[in-house]
Amino acid sequence: MRIIVPIRQILDPRGFTVSPRHERIFINREEYIINPNDKNALEVALSLKDAGDAEVIVIAGGQARLDDALREAMAMGADAAYLLTDEVLAKTDAAGVAEALARGIEKIGDFDLIVVGQETLDTADALLGPWLAEYFGVAQVGGVRQASVSDGVLRVRRDWGAGYAEVEVALPALLTVAPGANKPRYPHGGRIMAAYREWQVNIWGSEDLGLSAADLILLTQRRGRTFPPERTLGERLTGSPQDVAAELVQQLRLRGLVG
Amino acid sequence: MDLDYLQMLMGEEEIVVEEEGEGYRNIWVVAERAGDELVPVTLEMLNQARQLASTLGAYVMAVLLGGGEALAQELIYYGADKVFLCDDPALEEYALEPYAKALGDLFTEKMPEIVLFGATDMGGELAPRLARRLGTIVLTNCTGLTLDAAQRTLVCTMPAYGGEYSEVVAFSPEVHPQMVTVRPGAFGRPYRDEYRSAEIEAVAVDLDGVQSRVKVLNVVAQVEREPVPLDRARIIVSAGRGMGDAEGFALVEKLAAALGGEVAGSRGAVDEGWIDEEKQVGMGGATVRPDLYIACGISGAIQHYFGIQDAKFVVAINRDEKAPILKVADVGIVADAKEVIPAILEALGA
């Protein structure tokens, strides 16, 4: 069984502080880490490999620095890695990366399963999983916690409202894994050296994928950042219990603290 | 004065949508329902869509899959200028493939300028699939939507790292439809106006050969939520002696459950025997750093403050206007928590 896991990278939140007062992000240490939810996805794939005969391939698209993320994924247990990067791919957006990843996966060959982290930690970007499922026209299950395979049928436990559901889906399929679904394994000591010194990361550019700059034009424009209001302690709400409750709930909603 | 005359006075005539026009137009809201009720984010999207529509000079179209006429009518009351109702039995229960097919066909024909989905399980998996199908992009989990009038594009606010800051991203002008998923709770709910009247158009869907490939074996509707250790909890509702008695403490538990948070207490609450010592916050107990900390009937001596100084947002409810906690809270409410908490529960719809 061949399992593909796309890997994304985010700026390590431990390396910067946000100052609402200065409306700025102060970067103390610019380091990139594997998107934590993608590690959950990799863990689901590796646990399937532990349970049976499977090959886990990791793939990433965009900037050259993703090389590091792919080697870490190999150290965790992935069998092979593909990096899609060049000047054109380094400048594209989420849709461009998704398109490149789709072409890259196609070029690798047949697959049985794609396992994707549901969203990124930085901007909660949740485009990739369903996008790939649409590209390949395969069945898709979201909110995945656990998966197992027998006789070519995948059995999955997924979030379902306030509870969960057990579902079955025939391969090939795509899973998007819930953030925090599991505790990803640490890279294996022996594999770390090999991943950084011996093993290859295969590199393809946009031409290898049949993509040109015209295919990857930016569909979005960055307009900057906004910051939450600076903290002012001691604000008082007054009025009837109903009034203060309504005002409080409104404030919590604005801050995204209640759904 | 009879009722007919009153209705006439209010000038409520049916909204007539002019369908002519070239290219991509109008703002579409993909309604989501739970059984025969609309989920809150659907109403919130209608509210925001109305505001965008008045700036753009566009109509607000809603599309409802399953659910029937009565729910379609609700969408009109809450702000839709027209509802497209796909009332096929195959769409009564949500399933990815049939829903994607129905929406994909409709959008290909109607060419929406903007499409809003809820950032829910359903919207989260449908929107990117349709974006790819229609050759566009989707911006996910948005909490703010405004317009760049000059280039007629949506400008979206997307919270980063759980809301530490937000990225602001606009669609490029040539991108259509502009698709977003909207985070539940980001926008207010609109007024329900029973005098609004508009057309409901039944849409036939072609679901030939389309069926869900995912077989649901069994569903466990409710899982006992495992308590999150206090030092990792995102939301904490904490009780102090000011809650008065076990009954007052039960209100705090209710509020925590409604917010999906954890219950904790001050030294006072532990001494009263309402809560275990391991749930004590402050010096001698846990040091916490939640996104939201609600202190109910806690005076907030320095020993308690020590445990919550890293909380990102502190709400304090206390009868005593001189209570120290009110000075260090982001929002203070001088009132009896036993009166305010039931009102909060009501405002949350819990």
Provide an overview of this structure.
The complex is a heterodimer of chains A (259) and B (350). In chain A, the strands form three sheets. A nine-stranded mixed beta sheet of chain A has the order 11-10-9-12-8-1-6-7-13, sandwiched between helices. Chain A has a two-stranded antiparallel sheet with strand order 2-5. Chain A has a two-stranded antiparallel sheet with strand order 3-4. In chain A, strand 3 (16-19) and strand 4 (24-27) form a beta hairpin. Chain A has six helices and 15 strands. Helices cover 29% and strands 32% of the residues of chain A. Chain A has helices spanning 36-51, 66-76, 94-108, 128-136, 189-197, 241-254, and strands at residues 2-6, 9-11, 16-19, 24-27, 32-34, 55-61, 80-84, 113-117, 139-150, 153-160, 163-170, 173-177, 202-204, 220-226, 235-237. The mean pLDDT of chain A is 93. Chain B has 350 residues and is of the alpha/beta class. Chain B folds into two domains: 3-202, 3-Layer(aba) Sandwich (Rossmann fold); 230-347, TPP-binding domain (Rossmann fold, 3-Layer(aba) Sandwich). In chain B, the strands form four sheets. Chain B has a seven-stranded parallel beta sheet with strand order 7-11-6-1-4-5-12, sandwiched between helices. A five-stranded parallel beta sheet of chain B has the order 15-14-16-17-18. In chain B, strand 4 (60-65), helix 3 (68-77) and strand 5 form a beta-alpha-beta unit. The two termini of chain B are 40 Å apart. The model of chain B has no long low-confidence stretch (mean pLDDT 90). At the A-B interface, helix 3, helix 4, strand 9, strand 10 and strand 11 of A face helix 4, helix 5, strand 7, strand 9 and strand 10 of B. Strand 11 of chain A pairs antiparallel with strand 13 (214-220) of chain B, so a sheet runs across the interface.
By CATH, the architecture of the largest domain in chain A is named: 3-Layer(aba) Sandwich
Give me the side-by-side strand order of the main sheet of chain B. 7-11-6-1-4-5-12
Helical fraction of chain A equals 25-40%
Whole-number average pLDDT of chain A? 93
